[in-house]
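REVIEWER CHECKLIST
Item 1: Sequence provided? yes
Item 2: Single chain? yes
Item 3: Sequence as submitted:
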Amino acid sequence: MRITGKLRPVVALTAAAALVAGCSGSGDSSDRDGDRKTFIFGASDDPKTLDAAYVSDGESFRAIFQIYETLVALEPGGTEVVPSLATDWTISDDGLAYTFNLKPNVKFHDGEAFNAAAVCFNFDRWYNFKGAQQNGDISYYWQTIFGGFATKDNESVPETSRYKSCEATSDTTVTLNLAQPSSALLAGLVLPAFSIASPKAITDGGTDVTVQGDSISYSGGFGSTTVAGTGPFKFVSWERGERLVLEANEEYHEGRPKLDEIIFRPIADATARLQALQAGEIDAYEGVAAADVAAVESAAQVVSRPAFNVGYVGFNNNIPLLKNQKIRQAIAHALNRQGLLDAQYPQGAEVANQFLPPSQWGYNSSIAGYEYSEEKAKQLIAESGETNLTLEFWYPANVSRPYMPNPQAVYESFAADLEKVGFTIVPKTVPWTPDYLQNIQSDNLGQLFLLGWSGDYADPDNFVGTFFRENNPQFALNEPNIQGKLNQALAETDQAARQALYEEVNQLLFDYIPGVPFVHNQPLLALASDVTGYTPSPVSLEYFKLIDLGS
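Item 4: Structure as written out by the authors:
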């Protein structure tokens, strides 16, 4: 999922006390109720809200993904787009009209009918977001996939929108009309941000969002007390900081799930999540540290998520020293990436040579990568003519990311590598949110910095397009040739031509070196020994409807 922006989503205005009927205890093993098949997931945080259009973080999406559905989805454990609420679809030759045939006889959890009109209600709602709803931290994925809105109320919003209209031509046929083609559209529609919710629930519950300073407040009942999708699990209750409870949808259109109940328990500390698993208080958690693998395996299962991410050392290409290509090349050769992975990463992590994982089409398999060589780095520094080799190196504190389980260890390893070849490294570290991301992404303070990306959907634009298609402050890269080819690739409707463009872009990026990709990691999950059917997803969207217990 997307790296979180600078705003803090800290307040839900709906009173939590109204949500706890039927819940008791402090979230320990008493959550289990007799013979009911209750699956308890130890999350690192609460969802921000269950209004899918307002969030972009993994913990919100994990819960939302069980409640709502989208028109198209990803195959379990893979990145192929498959039918979901739409049975099939056609795309016009000019790429401007996407027509979906919808599943008949599907009901929302509140009893309302799912149909083409409901689809258009949701898309038109998102397109007509106003004011704070247009903040990039709130409607990030709409802006990523569709661009702007019906009106422009925020300076940072894209000038134009790819969305034009939605037509419900029958109860089971709907057409999305675009103002300009986007070949990443279908892949992007798998995102939970485009979940189809009951129009009645949205209208009756009410939904609004406000931004005050660096905080986001969600108001209205929709997304907190009034929640209705078409998915395999229905909302029951939510006691913030304690538990979110879902139950099986007995009328689910694909058949009742095997589980009776899901409970999401927020446990911020990774060690506490491990202890909760060992005590039988939870059945699963994500983010198993490499050092904890043996402890987990003694009583439970460890499974790995397919590597669909990239960690990188980014360069601020506005810094005079980093404008020198010889210096950028020297850094690439100085970093002992394999040594870092051998010492700090779990089995399965691999050295990255591009800003795109190898499993994503558009990857350029002819790029061999920069070899680790102190001598080559020293030679390039000598050729550069630079004598002041001092650089600030930023890394985040108090955070673990899928591509970077221990940022300080990564920093220490790479800083030592760079000092071996003559650089003077000045450490800079601040908490991940909001300070680190704001400093790196908005305020352009980083010189060298650690960052990365976990893929949201299977399209290369979600990686290299996100980083380099527009002027991204973190890299401060102004290369019209690269940006032009990325925009050309997004508008191109011929798949073979798109692939060739992305392969070319990856070669251009490799030659320029706006930063050094260093890892594609396989994040680890822990599962209780009796959990079956848990299929790790490359994009962190697991179908809990496939899970069973005790069999």
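Item 5: Key structural point noted by reviewer: The chain is about 25% helix and 25% strand.
Item 6: Recommendation: ____
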